[in-house]
Structure formats: C-alpha cells, structure tokens
Amino acid sequence: MHNFANASFSPEVIEAMTSALKAAVATLPEPVHSSHVNLIAESILRTAGTGERNPSTLQRIALMELQLQRRD
C-alpha cells in the first residue's frame, strides 16, 4: 500500500470513503482477494485526496482503476 501516513480527512469524508469501499467490495465476485481490496482502498484514498467526496464517484473510479490494474 502506498504511504498515506500524512493524509487527514474529516469524519464526513471518512464516512464517504467507507461507504464507497463497502459498496465497491460488494460488487466483486467471490472469493474477494485482499489485493483487490487494497487496490480499491488506495484508489479511494487517492481520489478523496484530490477533493472528491461523492461515495458513488469514489466507488466508480476505484472499480475502473481495479479493472485497468488487473489487465496489466
């Protein structure tokens, strides 16, 4: 996982990120691999760090990035 030690988010943003993570993971086929969850979490952290706050948008971007990553 990338270093997000200096990241700081308000409780509202953490709630949005948590919602996005849960929703994104719920769409993955079983068994869900921890590496996929990590990639989704990193994407959400990175995207939220740019100012995005909409959970649906965070989820959508994370899932798109996961699809791109899995092709490599």
How is this structure best summarized?
This protein has 72 residues and is mostly helical. It has helices spanning 11-26, 34-49, 55-71.
Shape: globular
Q: Please give the count of helices.
A: 3
**Percent helix:** 55-70%
| Percentage beta strand | under 5%
Largest sheet: none
The termini sit apart by 18 Å
Rg calc:
12 Å
Q: Can you tell me about this structure?
A:
The chain has helices at residues 11-26, 34-49, 55-71. The chain has 72 residues and is mainly alpha-helical. Helix 1 crosses helix 3 (55-71). The two termini are 18 Å apart. The mean pLDDT is 91.
Q: Which properties best describe this structure?
A:
72 residues; 3 helices
Write the layout of secondary structure elements.
Elements: H1 11-26, H2 34-49, H3 55-71
